[in-house]
Every structure is written in C-alpha cells, then in structure tokens.
Amino acid sequence: MTNVKFAPDRGECLRLLGALPQFADLPDALMAGLCESATLLRAEAGRLLFREGDPAEHFLLVRRGCVEMLRFTCDGEERVFHLFREGQLIAEAAMFMPHGRYPMNARSQGSGEFFRLSRNALRKACENHPPLAMRMLENLSLRLYRQVNEVDWLTASSASQRLAAYLLGLHRRQGERLNLPISQRQLATHLGIRPESLSRLLSDWQQAGRIQGRLRQWLLCDLTYLQDLASPAVRSF
Prior knowledge:
Structural class: alpha+beta
Order of helices and strands: EHHEEEEEEEEHHHEHHEEH
C-alpha cells in the first residue's frame, strides 16, 4: 500500500534538502518556500511511486529507503537505470522537461518514506534566485556527462569489463563484501549482456578465485584483476 499525508516535520525536509550541494546556504525564505507544501509519501516494497508518462507535478527527496528507476523493454524485461538512496533527489530534472511527464518508472525497492516536493515551487525558486538555477544546471550537466561516458563504455567494452567496473563501483561504497542491490537478471539487462553470460562469468571468476559467493552476496578476492579489466573506464576528468 502507498499513502500520502502532510509532512509532520518539515524541519527534516529542510535539513535533507540543505545538505545537497545545489541547495546549500540558500536564503531561508527560499528553502521554506520549497518545503512549505511538502508531503510525506510512504510506500511498501515494490510499489511504484510514479509511472513513466505520468504528469510530472512533484519531485522526491528520499527520507528513508531506496528507489529503483526503471523502464520495461519490449520483451517485458526490467532495465534498472539507477538507484536513489537516503538524502538524494529523484526526478528534479523532469520538473523542467517541456512535455511535463516522467521519463521513467520509480519503484520503492523496500519500504520507504519520501518527501514529495512541488514542481511549481522549484521552478519559482529558480526564477526568483538565479544562483539556484545555475547550480541545478551544473548538477544536471555533470549527470549528463556521466551518462554519455556510461553509454560510450557500454558500447565499447566487453561483458567482463562491464561487470568488473560495476563490481568495483559497488566496492567503493560497500567494501570487499558486496550485496548486489538488484537481481542478477536485472544486472544482466543493466550491463547489456545475456543472463546466461553473466552467470557464466561469475562462475568462471569464482573457479579462478577472483570472487566468492552466490546470488546477491559476493566477496571480491582479486581486486587487481578487476581493476586491470576495468581500467579503460577510468577517465581523467
């Protein structure tokens, strides 16, 4: 079940929003205007917070939990593009899209709570305070640059290189013992490889002593091997 109620503590909304670089040290009145109409969205695991094509009237700030951004392929497979966690914004870019619709589905990975903030409030804040608009533009430009790099990497790399780069990305956040945030089938789709190819790679690396584990739990045993494989993904800026 998903339900909405008025946010009981806008102070927490202000705190989480103010911790983001694009909103840090902004005038109090501006921040208050952004959070004034905020509501709290509570969702159980697997519930969609919004659907692709829905009118984009709100963006989300994760208070607790994790959100998958996904689309469905023509074959019905899920492709997870990104995960958002506590303190991160979701769909703020959609607030500025001319068509005014969400470009992806957002699904709560587990139970979670999310502040829902107004599209109109964000646009008004950017109009009234140009430095915020510049920060938003800088942030979105950086994300676009990273997406271009990712597309370039996906089209130019091998399956083993893509898997190594993905595992190393998790390693930077979790350490040597990894908990995959998505299923192996979703991971295969994310990396652009067949599920059986992913399974074979994991099995081969496990037999060679590169990794150990099963399903979503893995231990990285040979970081040097993985780093050498993924080294072409590292850019100078």
